[in-house]
Amino acid sequence: MLSMAVQQALEIAKALKLAECIQCGMCTGSCPVSAKVPLNVRRIVRQVGLFYELPLEPVEALWACTTCGTCELRCPKELKPVEAVISLRSVLVEEGKIARSIAEALESVFTHGNPWGRGRAKRLDWAEGLSFKLKHASEGAEWLYFVGCTPAYDTRAQEVARALAELLNIAGLDFAILGKDESCCGNEIYSMGEKGLFEELRDGNIAKFEELGIERIVTSCPHGFNAFRNLYEGRVANVLHHSQLLSALIDEGRLRPAKELGLKVVYHDPCFLGKRNNVFDEPRHVIEAIPGVELLEFDRNRSRSLCCEGGGGRMWVDIPGEKLAERRVREAAELGADVIAVACPFCLITLEDAVKTAGLEEKLKVMDIAELLLASIKGPSQA
Asked: CA nearest 236: which of 188, 185, 273, 191?
């Protein structure tokens, strides 16, 4: 009889067709975090796909993966090494071999519907100070603004949620929110390997959308965007990232940036928006529509963008070594940028922390594209 470990490895190898790996090393060679930690994706695929072994050590290396998807983009056989890492994490979750911070995040999702350890009653705090009253989705609306956990609870990301809500209101969009009834999208829970909890979140959210008759969703978080598009089994249609909707509203003349900002702006492509979902042009279109803004580009941009290390559960587990976000902000400073524009709450947090760590607060700001757009519509005081 096969051991449990071998049986698990066989199932992973078969499901992901890992035996087809040609061991070219493109996955490890392109991995943004492999240079700082002993994360060898090629070796993981080889051990599981060819030898049916579960390479669970070093555990830290498995958790270093940000699930950015670069390895999948580079794989000539179109395999999914990220899913192999996630499947190995699932084994660790089942065995309880996970960091306390990960366990606490998962427990918080189960108890409170978010990984930040905050009560559900606080989920609408981000909306304080808005110039208009928000509707609840139960009242009916053309669009659901799915806020997401991080924009709902993180004080810096809350500013982006308010900016986006203001823009949607200015555009005359008929939208509503779920408020305290909103639960985690589950994208990071899936990436952490807790697939059972993810399925509960997915099924619960789908049931809620269907009950309320929700047909269109916009979210400012690429991770939620990815979950709805790629992890919800095609059961959630008409989902847009806020960069896509803002770009369309500008083209329709419903949002009219007019005030010149006089800024040099470099755009950082979020992995889950760009690499994972091929959305590259719309965020740039929003930036370029703002008068007095010069759009700069990183050398590593679009599908080659340098991961900020915020995804794949990495917001809840620290990996020693220089943060890639620190490298990114130094590159921005060398380009002469005034602002790093982002379109993801995780990128916003990691890059803003890196600006502080690098001592660049006086030279460089990190802003979401919604904040930049609102500043041009309502005035530079918004910046």
From this structure: 185
Read off the CATH number of the domain in which 122 is found.
3.40.50
- The alpha carbon torsion through 248, 187, 231, 281 (nearest 10 deg) reads 30
Give dist(CA 236, CA 358) in Å, integer: 41
Q: How many CB atoms lie within 10 A of CB 166?
A: 20
Which residue in this structure is represented by tokens 């089994």? 233
What does the pLDDT look like over 225-241, one tens digit per residue? 999 999 999 999 899 99
Provide the pLDDT for residue 382: 44
**What pairs with residue 264 in β-bridges?**
294
Neighbours of 317 (CB within 10 A): 17
pLDDT of 42 above 80: yes
Whose CA is closest to 280, among 308, 247, 250, 254? 247
Residues spanned by the domain of 156: 113-247
pLDDT level of residue 383 (50, 70, 90 thresholds):
very low
Specify the 3-state DSSP secondary structure of 108: helix
* Rounded Cα gap, residues 25 and 319, in angstroms: 23
Q: Is residue 67 part of a domain?
A: yes
